[in-house]
């Protein structure tokens, strides 16, 4: 494991100007795009969704809010250190705070993604109980528990009273071995790994459940309908009688009275009920695909970072990670909140709606139609 002096000398002398220029341009673009994109997604959530009625939307709102907090708190500091990599040295308190927020958001968003998976599984398997109990208030309580767990894991690792050395370079988040003992970083990594494994197991069970239901889904057809009767409608007698009276007596007073008495509100037919259930199931599958896409994106961008931390925690004198690989891994974690808004807008229907109002109501194909 490298000492602080070796890490300091390597970072000061080994980064040429093209690499620093690439870091400056790429991080500046990510800072602008990620900040604007996440703000627009939060605006879309607030305009088109009733967060109190759907728990997955509340989990997504918490996920995007954490990403936005990381963009506002951590990206500017990293951007300044790229511009002034030799002159500007972060103090111990600033670097500790940045590392704490990165670990806090890493653990919190991992648990948020796991919460989305559990919510989708519970909704698909226990629909009635889910609609009764799992509203937005329930999801808010779960998010508070998630943030408490993330704070429990992240705070002792960085604010345990030990003397920390400042880091000169762009990633205060990456070399955690300069801040924490091996037992502390292993606790954080085990919590993230557990959430990741639980999420994969839940999605595997969910996809098996949806596959079984799709096989059992009956063929929807419209039964034969006659002009005078229908064997599928329980109101056949009333309809036939009203039609006979109207045809026989025309505009006589008794016909008007009969129609006003016996004409009831039209009830949905079996075909309409089956079509409505099929539409609800398709909307549920679309929402599940959105949650799964968030999980895949988050895992792809953060898994190399977690693996590298495992390597650093268990290295014990082995060769360290090369500088180019270290920068690539760190920049993947910076890229994740930049891509997330595009995933939300493309799979949730916000980009197709373009913030329009349809039929006088707030509408979004995946988000609002599944909120009933």
Automatic annotation (TrEMBL):
The chain crosses the membrane at residues 20-46, 58-79, 99-118, 138-159, 185-208, 287-311, 331-351. Its main location: membrane. It is a multi-pass membrane protein. Keywords: Cell membrane, Disulfide bond, G-protein coupled receptor, Glycoprotein, Membrane, Receptor, Transducer, Transmembrane, Transmembrane helix. SUPFAM superfamilies: Family A G protein-coupled receptor-like (SSF81321). It is found in: Cell membrane. The keyword Cell membrane applies. Residues 37-344 form the G-protein coupled receptors family 1 profile domain. GO terms for cellular component: plasma membrane. GO terms for molecular function: G protein-coupled receptor activity. Belongs to the G-protein coupled receptor 1 family. This is Probable G-protein coupled receptor 85. It comes from Nephila pilipes (Giant wood spider). The lineage of its organism: Eukaryota, Metazoa, Ecdysozoa, Arthropoda, Chelicerata. The gene is GPR85.
């Amino acid at each position: 494991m490298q000492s602080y002096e070796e890490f300091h000398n390597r970072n000061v002398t080994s980064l040429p100007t093209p690499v620093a220029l690439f870091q400056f341009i790429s991080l500046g673009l990510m800072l602008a795009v990620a900040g604007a994109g996440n703000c627009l997604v939060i605006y879309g959530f607030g305009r088109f969704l009733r967060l109190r009625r759907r728990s997955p939307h509340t989990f997504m709102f918490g996920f995007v809010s954490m990403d936005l907090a990381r963009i506002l708190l951590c990206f500017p500091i990293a951007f300044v250190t790229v511009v002034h990599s030799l002159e500007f040295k972060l103090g111990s308190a600033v670097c500790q705070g940045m590392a704490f927020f990165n670990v806090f958001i890493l653990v919190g968003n991992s648990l948020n993604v796991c919460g989305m998976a559990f919510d989708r599984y519970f909704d698909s398997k226990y629909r009635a109980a889910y609609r009764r109990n799992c509203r937005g208030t329930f999801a808010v309580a779960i998010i508070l528990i998630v943030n408490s767990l993330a704070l429990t894991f992240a705070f002792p690792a960085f604010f345990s009273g030990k003397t920390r050395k400042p880091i000169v370079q762009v990633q205060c988040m990456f070399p955690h071995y300069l801040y924490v003992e091996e037992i502390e970083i292993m606790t954080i990594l085990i919590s993230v790994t557990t959430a990741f494994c639980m999420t994969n197991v839940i999605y595997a069970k969910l996809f098996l459940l949806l596959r079984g239901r799709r096989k059992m889904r009956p063929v929807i057809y419209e039964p034969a309908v006659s002009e005078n009767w229908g064997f599928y409608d329980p109101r056949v007698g009333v309809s036939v009688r009203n039609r006979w009276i109207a045809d026989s007596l025309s505009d006589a007073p008794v016909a008007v009275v009969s129609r006003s008495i016996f004409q009831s509100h039209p009830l949905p037919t079996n075909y309409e009920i089956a079509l409505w259930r099929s539409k609800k199931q398709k909307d549920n599958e679309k929402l599940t695909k959105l949650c799964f896409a968030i999980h895949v994106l988050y895992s792809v961008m953060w898994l190399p970072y977690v693996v590298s931390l495992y390597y650093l925690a268990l290295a014990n004198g082995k060769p360290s990670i090369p500088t180019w690989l270290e920068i690539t891994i760190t920049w993947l974690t910076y890229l994740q909140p930049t891509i997330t808004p595009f995933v939300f807008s493309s799979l949730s229907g916000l980009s197709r709606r373009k913030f329009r109002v349809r039929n006088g109501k707030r509408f979004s194909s995946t988000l609002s139609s599944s909120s009933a």
